[in-house]
Amino acid sequence: MKTPHVKEHTSKPSSRLRTLATRQIERCREMLRTPGPNARALIFAEPFWGTITSWYALYGPLYMVALGVSKSQVGSIAAIGFTVQVISALVGGHLSDHWGRKRTMQLADIVGWVIPSIIWLTARGLPHFLIAAAINGLYHAAVPAWGCLLVEDTHPSKRQAIYALVQMMFVGSGLLVPIGGLFVQHWGIVTGGRVMYFVGLCMVITALWIRQHGVQESTIGANMVEQKISASPSRTLGEFYSSFQIMRQSPTILILFLVQTIAMFTNVIRNTYGAIYMTDATGLALSPAIIALIPATISGTMILALLLLVPHIGPKHAGWGLQVGALCFTLGTLALLLAPPGVIIYPLISACFYGLGSAILDPIRQASLANAIPDQARAKINSLIAVMTLLATVPAGPVAGALYSVSPHLPFVLVITLQVISQILLLWLVARGEGN
After folding, report:
1. Residue 139: which of 95, 72, 190, 89 has the closest Cα?
2. Positions in the chain short of pLDDT 70
3. Which of 14, 94, 268, 385 has its CA 20 to 30 A from that of 72?
4. Environment class of residue 126 by beta-carbon count within 10 Å: exposed (0-12), middle (13-18) or buried (19+)?
């Protein structure tokens, strides 16, 4: 008499699991069906950009140090790049409305990535890295145009899914970072770095080709070109001022802008000094090859979260998602600070938290910001946000360099302090009911 009961008991969990799996697969399919043609091409190009930026961020500082650049000079080189990015971002918003989104994006990325990759490939010392950083900063003129092309001609309800897909494709490429580690392990930091920059140059060209053939000018972008091609500089400045007023009067835009600024500031510190700290004898004393597992772990965690967790976080749960995502960043930095020398497990735990935080927080923050910005003002406001964020980020490299010279731990103490401030800002935003 008990056998049927046992069968019924075991079949119910199995049935529930199948139902959950079916629902999850359907949510993922719906997310993949979301993008329009422009977003689809931009998303398809993301793995190439993701691979080169992951390689360059992880091994670029080590490559510079191996070629005679001091650790404090690495921060100064980063500051040069961000200074140029400020100007480029400001110009990019203007060019997006006057040249069109696609033309601005492609030209800025050709100049800002192809030329620096060639310089990095052949670099011999500090002057080459300073020149490459300055030219690389010009790519930021493409950011406002790229942001417009990604979401224009797309319903606001679909934008969170688009940003999630961008995240998935961009970070999924981080799984290829261990290939860069193999280059370094086989040829050493200098020769392996040159191989990495050559492969990166090929990837840049491929990504540009995909976008050239897959992206068309958006409807809003085409209208802006027709309406404002003859606008005077004074009128353009007036439009920027009007856009600033829109930002100032919107608590949602202001708070999300501050959170984005803190995120970029802390990312600069982590990207510039993370690899140095993990391989430094006074830091964690890990081998340069093994730290390639860190971005791969971040990518793997993000992909799992984007597939299994993020599809369940709809607009009604946006406030919860912002809070959990911000907390994960804080815990990730804490794990890195607590790591004992020579032990890889703590950096891997840190990477898991960072991957989870990025998967949850970034798509919600980006979609909330995109939905809060009026369509006609999007290029200018995106440009202003980029400019002000970059201005605030310029000191990150030199400040981190000065702190690192005192103690390798201090830059990450600053990071965790700023991340706590970010979480407080998000708490205030969600409490106002404006986090959706």
Report:
1. 89
2. 1-35, 153-155, 157, 171, 224-240, 314-316, 376, 379, 433-436
3. 385
4. middle
Distance of alpha carbon 385 from the chain centroid:
15
Q: Which residues contact 222 (CB under 8 A, 6 or more apart)?
A: 100
Sorted by where each begins, the domain ranges of the chain are 37-431
Cα separation of 96 and 24, whole Å? Answer: 38
Residue 229's Cβ-side half-sphere holds a number of Cα atoms within 13 Å equal to: 8
Rounded to a whole number of angstroms, the CA Rg of the chain reads: 22
Q: Give the up-direction half-sphere exposure of residue 80: CA atoms within 13 A in the CB hemisphere.
A: 16
- Residue carrying structure tokens 């829109």: 246
Nearest to 404 by CA among 294, 301, 275, 216: 275
- Please say whether the dihedral angle defined by the alpha carbons of residues 266, 271, 277 and 278, taken in this order, is positive or negative: positive
Number of neighbouring beta carbons within 10 Å of residue 125: 11
Q: How far apart are CA 92 and CA 89, in angstroms?
A: 5
pTM above 0.70, yes or no: no
User: Residue 60: what residue type?
Assistant: G
* CA dist., res. 62 & res. 59, Å (int): 5
Q: Which two tokens stand for residue 387?
A: 């400019």
Residue 258 contacts residue 393 (beta carbons within 8 Å): no
Alpha-carbon distance 315 to 83, whole Å? 36
